[in-house]
Design a protein that fits this description.
Elements: E1 6-11, H1 15-26, E2 31-35, H2 42-46, H3 49-66, H4 83-98, H5 103-110, E3 112-116, E4 119-123, E5 126-129, E6 132-141, E7 145-147, E8 175-179, H6 183-195, E9 198-202, H7 214-227, E10 230-232, E11 235-243, E12 246-253, E13 256-262, E14 264-267, E15 271-273, E16 287-288, E17 291-292, E18 305-307, H8 318-334, E19 347-349, E20 354-359, H9 362-367, E21 372-378, H10 383-388, E22 394-400, E23 405-412, H11 415-427, H12 432-437, H13 447-473
Parallel strand pairs: 1-2, 1-6, 2-3, 6-18, 8-9, 8-14, 9-10
Antiparallel strand pairs: 4-5, 5-6, 7-15, 11-12, 12-13, 16-17, 19-20, 20-23, 21-22, 22-23
Helix pairs in contact: 1-8, 3-4, 3-6
The structure holds flavin-adenine dinucleotide (FAD).
């Protein structure tokens, strides 16, 4: 008789849990997936990536209609947005994707059993679910994260919303305060502004998008300001009241207090790991407010239990959740000593223009003590960008002393797609010479990638020649 009921129990049916469980099931491990909500898919499908990108598209389309004349078209007198219809489109898109995450589908295709309910650990090999004890040799903890709510006086007494509620609002708010100038806050702020809300972003740091270099952050901030979003930087929310259906947020900027009013308050001030109610202590799993602690192999302090995705506090992205879950599966099932390597993790903030990054940026390279040079090209010179009327932004390539690309940041229309060439180039150690000489189709935005490589190579080789020449004379 088997010692345990399962080879693997995965707790949490979001991006991390779905990848971990289907990977384990596919290679023959007896796998159970446990999800506390009624449906699988997690934040990405229901309250994150999918609804946000769907909303962004609706807002983009409405914005383009506003500027029809920019494309030589007749001006359009647009009716106001009926947010219920936008929200219905979002729901339809979620439903069309949900079919891939149905329990019957993953049972049939990947041999994974699903049970719904909230479980808790009894020890390192046992959980209790719906009153029953279930044992497993290994576990993957993939319970994700929730919105972190800031300590502002009065916040508990006001009906603020988060990413969980924002996509299913009954109507478009006349005005909105967005607390937080990170990726989630900014994507929502620009979308609601474009759809017709009066939006104020309140951010306590001096700049938006804290992970990015200043030029990236400033370029996006300039677009927001030009579009009419009220950006309040170095501004801290200190007190909240809700009077006559109106939020009143008292803010502190350089010691000066003032009040911002709006009909809706969206809190987007970071994420907190979902660890409550799991009895992690019973399984000797260490965690803090950042997340469940893991080693490079993504094992928790209990070595048969792995933690992947948002719950471990590494990089809060769906593609990272999937990457980590693949590694956990290889370690747990095949006992391969695989480690997670975050050097070349890409990410994209889907504001317009998008901001994409891979590898080092200037700030992180400096912090790591790496010597590097920077080469920048502006999108405005690209013929396709001109034809599209999307000329904002730049590409920035960081190169180390050996001429190897160590990072790239792009601010551009569809930067999230343009970065893919750099993902291949950096991971495949493709030289700038090769990239710069590769024929790219005309006219495409991706010619900017070629140009950045080519110009860097030309500059670098001229400099090298000059240095050799000086050395020789000396
Ligand atoms: C508005 C927004 C936009 C985003 N956009 C992007 C984007 O464009 N690209 C990108 O890469 N990332 C994006 N993200 C981040 C992305 O959604 C997360 O990184 C990703 O969902 C993490 O996956 P996960 O499986 O770790 O967590 P989740 O997707 O949150 O899944 C965790 C699952 O665990 C379940 N669970 C929790 N506790 C328990 C329990 N005790 N027992 C059983 N089940 C439990 C939850 O119900 C949930 O289904 C966005 C996030 C937000 C909020």
């Amino acid at each position: 008789m088997a010692r345990y009921d399962y080879d693997m129990i995965v707790i949490g049916g979001g991006a991390a849990g779905l990848t971990a469980s289907t990977a384990c099931g596919s290679v023959g491990a007896k796998t159970l997936l446990i999800e506390k909500e009624e449906k699988l898919g997690g934040d990405c499908l229901h309250y994150g990536c999918v609804p946000s990108k769907s909303l962004i598209k609706s807002a983009y389309a409405y914005n383009v209609m506003h500027y029809a004349q920019k494309y030589g078209l007749p001006a359009v007198d647009l009716p106001k947005v009926d947010f219920k219809k936008v929200s219905q489109r979002i729901k339809d898109i979620i439903t069309s994707i949900q079919i891939h995450d149905e329990p019957e589908h993953i049972q049939k295709k990947f041999n994974v059993e699903t049970q719904f309910g909230e479980c808790k650990f009894l020890d390192k090999h046992t959980v209790e679910l719906n009153g029953k004890k279930i044992t497993s040799k290994n576990f993957v903890l993939a319970t994700g994260s929730s919105p972190a709510i800031p300590l502002i006086e009065g916040i508990k007494d006001v009906p603020y919303i988060t990413n969980v509620e924002v996509f299913s609002l009954d109507s478009l708010p006349e005005s909105m305060i967005v607390l937080g100038g990170g990726p989630i806050g900014l994507e929502m702020a620009q979308s609601f502004h474009r759809l017709g809300s009066k939006v104020t972003v309140v951010e306590c740091a001096p700049g938006i998008l804290a992970r990015e270099d200043e030029d990236v952050s400033q370029c996006i901030a300039d677009v927001f300001i030009k579009e009419g979003v009220d950006l309040r930087l170095s501004t801290k929310g200190v007190k909240l009241e809700y009077v006559n259906d109106l939020f009143q947020l008292t803010v502190d900027k350089d010691g000066q207090l003032s009040v911002i009013e709006a009909k809706c308050l969206l809190v987007a001030t970071g994420r907190a790991p979902n660890v409550d109610g799991l009895n992690l202590d019973k399984a000797d799993i260490e965690y803090d407010q950042r997340g469940v602690k893991v080693d490079k192999r993504l094992r928790t302090s209990a070595k048969n239990i792995y933690a992947t995705g948002d719950v471990n506090g590494s990089f809060p992205f769906t593609h990272v959740a999937a990457y980590e879950s693949g590694i956990a599966m290889m370690n747990a099932v095949f006992h391969l000593p695989l480690s997670a390597d975050y050097t070349n993790i890409p990410w994209v903030t889907y504001v317009d223009p998008e901001a994409a990054s891979i590898g080092y940026n200037e700030t992180r390279a400096r912090e790591a003590g790496i010597e590097f040079t920077v080469h920048k090209e502006f999108i405005g010179g690209n013929d396709r960008a001109k034809a599209e009327g999307e000329t904002g932004g730049f590409i920035k390539v960081l190169v180390n002393k050996k001429g190897v690309v160590i990072g790239c940041q792009i601010v551009a229309f569809h930067a999230g797609d343009l970065i893919n060439e750099w993902i291949t180039a950096i991971n495949g150690k493709v030289s700038l010479n090769t990239l710069g000489n590769a024929v790219h189709p005309y006219p495409t935005m991706s010619e900017v990638n070629k140009l950045a490589s080519f110009n860097y190579f030309i500059n670098a080789s001229l400099l090298t020649k000059l240095r050799l020449l000086l050395n020789w004379r000396w």
